[in-house]
């Protein structure tokens, strides 16, 4: 009797009321609620009662109340019948178990009776929508491609072949593996492939694996769930895969990825889904991956430093980016383009190059490729007061030891000055030696400068590996070079890797 009396009071005090059982089916509606049925598309009560509430009342949240057991005291419900101010309450049995829910329509068309509150709500909703659109537009702008295929400068046969392969790769969504020495333009090509693909309007997200500590890579890739660990963002953090959803993810220096993370990356590539750190929820993603490395992944697979299955997954569309010494005829065009950019950034007039300077540049080996060429051009431009640069301008720009201590140190560990420009064997005859047997012996035993530099590099790395017990990270730190540079050199001398395999491969 008490329950019936309460129902009667609520039915009279509200615009309408319904009761839903634990399986979400409507079991009863009040007389007041029946007037909403035509607007909802029903002729009478018999067509409405007994149906699942989510099927007949669009946008209702009563199923959530039944699932959570928590009431929703005040809410706005909008559907084709209008806008209503509603309350939703869970119904429990004597044991406290949720057996259904009660839905109350407190006000019909509250936009008239509660106009100030509804207007404020509308303004806040509009501001929120505007802010979301602006944020999405800003994020999209910051993650657009910076280069196109035309940005890869050169008309030599190797350059044209790379452009052809890049255009073909852009037509698909398959994984691309860019191979080549440091400074050859692999990142530029990644941007270009994305810009020419069907995903160009979606984000391009880049991550340099060698620049992120191993302990943070998993969070960078897959994201962090809210409160996953002490100090984590309370709202969580999206990973690079989620940020790149619908677009392209560029993984630079993929050869530096720790073996512990390689299996997780392989699973994402296969299943196209990620699981944030500290979460049990799997999030589907649609990401095209472009990877790049300056290391020999095939040799790393053979040495057990890189998973073979991940290598095969990445090596679907391999593109080898040629070294600068393989396309010397492009140097003139590169110098012109780099000179314009250097002048624009520095605010100084663009320097011209003499014929001798251009010939001198084309004779170099350029182990650092286009990045090294730019560095030398920028140094020569800033250090010279002349409007035209000659070969002597570039010689003056080359670094050299400042004092005797640095000169002595260079004999033990390879400094950056020795990894700069390495001239090829000269095509000119050497100057006639002074008379005497000593001069003849020196000339006979003289080795080309590139060979001598390579020997110094190899001896320095071997000595550093010996001193560090084969620890790669400590070796790179001792030599004052990056891990990527060390691995690149070790790939040229596999015997050094085998000799010091006992140490940590960090």
What is the topology?
Layout: H1 2-13, E1 16-21, E2 26-29, H2 37-40, H3 45-48, H4 53-56, H5 62-68, E3 72-79, E4 82-92, E5 98-108, H6 110-113, H7 115-142, H8 157-170, E6 176-179, H9 186-195, E7 204-208, H10 214-222, H11 240-243, E8 248-252, H12 259-271, E9 273-274, E10 283-284, E11 288-293, H13 297-302, H14 308-314, E12 317-320, H15 331-346, E13 352-353, H16 355-362, H17 369-383, E14 388-389, H18 391-397, H19 404-409, H20 437-445, H21 449-467, H22 472-479, H23 483-492, H24 494-499
Parallel strand pairs: 6-11, 6-12, 7-8, 8-11, 13-14
Antiparallel strand pairs: 1-2, 1-5, 3-4, 4-5, 9-10
Helix pairs in contact: 8-9, 15-17, 16-18, 17-18, 21-22, 22-23
List keywords for this structure.
5-stranded parallel sheet; 24 helices; 506 residues
Question: Nutshell version of this structure?
Answer:
Helix content is 45%, strand content 14%. It has helices spanning 2-13, 37-40, 45-48, 53-56, 62-68, 110-113, 115-142, 157-170, 186-195, 214-222, 240-243, 259-271, 297-302, 308-314, 331-346, 355-362, 369-383, 391-397, 404-409, 437-445, 449-467, 472-479, 483-492, 494-499; strands at 16-21, 26-29, 72-79, 82-92, 98-108, 176-179, 204-208, 248-252, 273-274, 283-284, 288-293, 317-320, 352-353, 388-389. The strands form 4 sheets. Strands 2-1-5-4-3 form a 5-stranded antiparallel sheet, sandwiched between helices. The chain has a 5-stranded parallel sheet with strand order 7-8-11-6-12. Strands 9-10 form a two-stranded antiparallel ribbon.
């Amino acid at each position: 009797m008490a329950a019936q009396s309460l129902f009667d009071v609520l039915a009279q005090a509200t615009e309408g009321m319904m009761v839903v059982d634990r399986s979400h089916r409507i079991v009863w509606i009040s007389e007041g609620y029946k007037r909403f049925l035509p607007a909802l598309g029903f002729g009478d009560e018999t067509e409405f009662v007994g149906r699942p509430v989510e099927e007949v009342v669009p946008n209702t949240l009563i199923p959530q109340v039944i699932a959570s057991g928590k009431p929703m005291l005040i809410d706005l419900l909008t559907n084709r019948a209008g806008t209503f101010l509603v309350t939703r309450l869970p119904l429990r049995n004597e044991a406290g178990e949720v057996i259904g829910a009660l839905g109350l329509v407190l006000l019909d068309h509250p936009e008239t009776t509660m106009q100030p509150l509804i207007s404020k709500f509308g303004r806040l909703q509009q501001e929120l929508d505007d802010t979301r659109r602006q944020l999405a537009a800003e994020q999209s702008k910051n993650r657009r491609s910076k280069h196109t295929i035309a940005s890869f400068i050169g008309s030599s046969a190797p350059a044209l072949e790379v452009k052809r392969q890049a255009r073909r790769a852009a037509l698909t969504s398959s994984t691309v593996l860019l191979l080549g020495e440091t400074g050859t333009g692999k990142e530029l090509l990644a941007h270009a492939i994305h810009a020419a693909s069907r995903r160009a309007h979606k984000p391009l997200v880049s991550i340099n694996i060698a620049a992120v500590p191993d302990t943070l890579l998993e969070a960078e890739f897959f994201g962090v769930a809210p409160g996953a660990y002490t100090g984590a963002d309370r709202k969580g953090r999206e990973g690079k895969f989620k940020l790149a959803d619908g677009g392209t993810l560029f993984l630079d220096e993929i050869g530096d990825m720790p073996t512990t993370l390689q299996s997780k990356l392989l699973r994402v590539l296969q299943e196209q889904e990620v699981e944030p750190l500290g979460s049990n929820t799997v999030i589907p993603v649609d990401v095209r991956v472009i990877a790049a490395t300056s290391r020999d992944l095939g040799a790393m697979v053979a040495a057990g430093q890189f998973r073979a299955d991940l290598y095969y997954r990445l090596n679907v569309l391999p593109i080898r980016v040629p070294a600068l010494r393989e396309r010397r005829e492009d140097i003139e065009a590169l110098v012109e383009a780099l000179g314009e950019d250097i002048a624009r950034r520095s605010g100084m007039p663009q320097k011209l190059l003499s014929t001798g300077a251009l010939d001198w540049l084309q004779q170099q080996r350029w182990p650092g490729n286009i990045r090294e060429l730019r560095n030398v051009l920028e140094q020569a431009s800033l250090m010279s007061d002349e409007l035209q640069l000659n070969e002597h301008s570039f010689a003056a720009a080359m670094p050299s030891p400042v004092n005797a201590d640095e000169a002595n140190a260079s004999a033990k560990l390879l400094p950056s000055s020795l990894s700069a420009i390495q001239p090829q064997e000269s095509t000119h005859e050497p100057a006639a030696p002074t008379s005497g047997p000593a001069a003849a012996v020196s000339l006979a035993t003289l080795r080309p400068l590139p060979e001598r530099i390579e020997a110094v590099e190899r001896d320095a790395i071997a000595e550093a590996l010996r001193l560090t017990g084969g620890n790669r990270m400590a070796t790179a730190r001792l030599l004052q070079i990056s891990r990527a540079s060390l691995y690149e050199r070790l790939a040229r001398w596999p015997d050094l890797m085998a000799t010091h395999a006992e140490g940590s491969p960090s």
